[in-house]
Amino acid sequence: MTYLYIVIGVLSVALIVLLYRYIRLKSEIRKISGQLEELVSDNSEKMLDISFVDKELERLAGLFNQYNDKQRQIVAGAIQDEDFLKDSVANISHDLRTPLTVILGHLQLIAKTDLTQEQKERLDIVNNKAVRMKELVDTFYEYSLVTTSNAEMKHEKLNILNMLIDLISDCAPLMDKKGITPQIDLPEHSVYIYSDRNAIDRILQNLITNSIRYSAGDISVKLTSNDSGIVLSVANPIPKDSELDPVRMFDRFYTGDSSRNSGGTGLGLAVVKELTAKLGGTITANREADQLTIELELPSGN
């Protein structure tokens, strides 16, 4: 009987010890989970604590810290490479703008001299290519400035309706050339927002010209407003066999499929996305069958 009591006592102590270790283990697992949740939600950059009762948990936490440190180094290196790329693009673009301007100036002077018809045709070809090259360089330079500049937006009262009408008028020759008849749906009254004029002008210009350039038919432009801000919708048909992915449209250097690859840089809409974010707005793209719609929302800024 005494022996049975001893066995029961030993088992009870062992059970208590196991229960204690189980409770401590659960507590330490919850502790690790809490720290991982903090890391995942970007609320903490601390390494995991590695002081645990269970040695395997200590080893696991140590390995995770090594992995986390390695990932941070990779991210830091990627950011450094990204900054280097942006600086390089800005510097190269800046260096190319001056000689291109000089080239275009001399081409204009040559065009005013007495030339044969053949010489004029060849000069037109060279001039068109030089103009296109300058447009590409300016786009790269603009993107580098937008993504690297920390300058605050200069807000002022803007009549965005007038800005949009002026832009559509300026684009009339390009639309005529492509046989596009724009479907315009605008308010009958002025629409004002407080925002940065240069940023708004660039956003509108990139959206409209992008739609005209890649449209497979007539485009539509619709502007609405409410107390919180404005919504601009620009839509155009796309080729039936287009593989265009609207989710990636605002990624830099994305030019879609071959039907959209007309020599563009894939930076126009990336610039729009960057500027829209700086202005506190949102921009989305949606594709339904053969219709592409880009919707821009901007706050009134009041």
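^ that was protein a. below is b, sequence first then the tokens
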Amino acid sequence: MSKSGQSLKEALQSVFASSAIIIALVISYFVYKYIMGNPVNFEGGNPEGSPMPGNYLGIIYKGGMIVPLLMSLIIILITFTIERLLSIGRARGKKRLNVFVKQLQSLLSDNKIEDALNSCDVQKGSLANVMKAGLHRYRALETDTNLNKDQKIIALQKEIEEATALELPMLSKNMVILSTIASIAVLIGLLGTVLGMIRAFAALAQAGAPDALALATGISEALINTTFGIGGSTLAIILYNFFSTKVDAMTFKIDEAGFSLTQTFASKVK
């Protein structure tokens, strides 16, 4: 992929990320306000009262205004999980990476450069893009009479490194969003927990009999936000580690294929 194409793709990715976050916030607010906060979910049709028995929408609504923030984090997490699955799937290409690397190694050992290029066109993906750039440079260096052997090897290594540098950012794109959610979801949930406990203790501190409704609301707010925060953070950590493992595996295969190409060139060039 060219640098201009890479820049355009990064710009589109940034627009997508910003739009996804804003849309998630809007959706979460409307779900919280008009679905969870629907009067039919509460006794006497009053959202300020107790939820209907067994009505989980009403129960979650009692978590307070921290709930839509946590809901938006979960929606963002789901959105970028899908985006990462699709992006990494495209980056892997059509064949399994192990099969593709072995095929390239076999073609290179037979000095079938054109067949290797055709194989990259069929495979597509990040590894194929890197190898295609390296193979084009390989072919050009074979007939170059101005450079000695060591200079040719260095030039080929540089070409592979530059192609890899263009591909790797797209593999890890938006991973920072997953890691951020893993960090802040539990903190936002803890904030909701503290606010709920403040409300609960305020109900207990009233003169005379405690306000049972306010006490129950405060405890509900604390527990619901704790659940959302811990659940969202745990899921984000699992997904971040899952995708990090996938990216590391692809990076290793790119390095392996690049090393094979360089070694083959070094053994054949004069």
